Amino acid sequence: MLQILGKVSSINVRKVLWTCAVLQIPFEREDWGAGFQSPSKPEFLALNPNALVPVIRDGDFVLWESNSIIRYLAASYGGEHLYPGDPRARARVDQWMDWQATDLNRSWSYAFLGLARHSPAHQDPEAIRASSELWTKHIGILSQRLEITGAFVAGQHFTLADIPICLSVNRWLHTPIPIPRPHFAAILAYVNRLAAQPGFREYCGPDMV
Questions:
Q1: C-alpha dihedral, 22 to 176 to 7 to 102, nearest 10°
Q2: Cβ-defined contacts of 143-148 (< 8 Å, 24+)
């Protein structure tokens, strides 16, 4: 059975858990990360030398990096409807997954750590405000994309890209940023559409930021 190492409170672990829910992949999960078993233990470092969650074990195959993991799961467990084989359709999914992992994630890092995780190292008010403004700017970019598709981020159908994107949107909606939060109608409609997907309520609710 697929094994997932990582705590549910991690947004990157939830990418994997939500993908498993959509694809109906049975799994066993172990809590690793802050507050649980330390990923700096030698047995974890032997699996991922970066000491980060999640890590999966699928038989004798070990994999880390959350977006790589969910791509692997879609390719291995009948998920072509989530991660299409057509090169252009797949590239569109990859584009938005990579945008989430780079531009979007970098924008919210300081504000989220300061406001939601209360990190002592992330309490500079100006840096929090700047991060919040950049985060909101990127949510605006996503909103413009959703206005074009009228459905999901890669097009008319739910794909693998919507899982990390929606988790990041959920984080933006439920973090108390110190600037006015624009009313992006396309974003709210998008979240409502995704609420029908298996795993949404377990891994993308207001208490899962």
A1: 70
A2: 143/184, 143/186, 143/187, 144/186, 145/96, 146/186, 146/187, 146/189, 146/190, 147/186
The token pair that represents 197 in the structure block: 């997907």
For residue 63, what are its two tokens?
A: 């994999």
Task: Give the length of the chain.
Answer: 209
In the chain, the domains with their CATH numbers are 2-76 (3.40.30.10), 87-203 (1.20.1050.10)
Q: Would you call the peptide bond into 54 cis, given omega within 30 degrees of 0 as the criterion?
A: yes
Q: For 2-43, what is each residue's pLDDT tens digit? A: 999 999 999 999 999 999 999 999 999 999 998 899 999 999
pTM of the model: 0.95
- Rounded to whole angstroms, how far apart are CA atoms 191 and 189? 5
